[in-house]
Design goal:
The chain has helices at 47-51, 77-87, 100-111, 134-149, 152-164, 175-189, 206-209, 227-239, 255-258, 260-275, and strands spanning 11-15, 18-25, 30-34, 56-60, 93-98, 116-122, 217-222, 243-248. By secondary structure, it is of the alpha/beta class. Helix 2 (77-87) crosses helix 3 (100-111). The longest helix has 16 residues, at 134-149. The protein is globular.
Amino acid sequence: MKVDLASLPIRSLRTDGGRLAYREAGSGPPLVFLHGGFVDHRMWEEQLPVFAARHRVLAYDARGHGGSDTATGPFRPADDVAALLRGLDAAPAVLVGVSMGGATAVDCALEHPESVRAVVVSGVGTSEPVFEDPWALDVLAAQGRALAAGDVTGWVDAFQRFTAGPHRDLADVDPEVVRRVREMVLGTLAKHAPGEADHRVPVTATWERAPGISVPVCAINGALDAPDHLAMAERLVRLVTDGRTVTVPGAAHYPNMENAARFDTELISFLRTLERV
């Protein structure tokens, strides 16, 4: 089944907190792709054609991103995922998430275990991040300074340092990847007003509760990602009952975009292990 992301209609599901936008393709065991913070479901455009051949694939926009509504009251991203799965009769599903999306997948496994078949994360552990490395702290500080100054361009430039990772300059990254990330980030920022309240409600004690996750967990990390991102993913897979790690060469925080062929190979390999259970 050959699928072009742009040809798929953007659908929406009404929830108590507003409209969640998503695209869907294929049939078979449900496979849900969760994007990173400030980007949107389009980061998975290489994956949909590959995985729709054997799976019912869903790629959705988290609240406040892409085509989904912006929150006007308290919400938990993991509850949104569970509502989407219930509303589309797609549970239990394998959840695949990069960065924020991976954290949401872990939260969903903690809060809605009946909805989750397995979890795949990239560059993240849980929704309680730990940043200690000087490089990451410098990036976050640069983002904070730009935000305080109302400097959108400066904030995006600082954000894009995660796209390259600490071992490269942005000029070393495929320009198309850089362009796509920037386009998605600017689209998300345009949905929000300066000083807008963050209505997300945290899931608590995630690291302490992680050993209770009984479904398989796989970390597919970019080899060039920041040390803190790699350390969080490694910590997660050590804590859970069934955890494993694989590495995608030549990629940083978005391995599915930078080295889609290798990312897809590793994900296919993990999904096949689930078929044997």
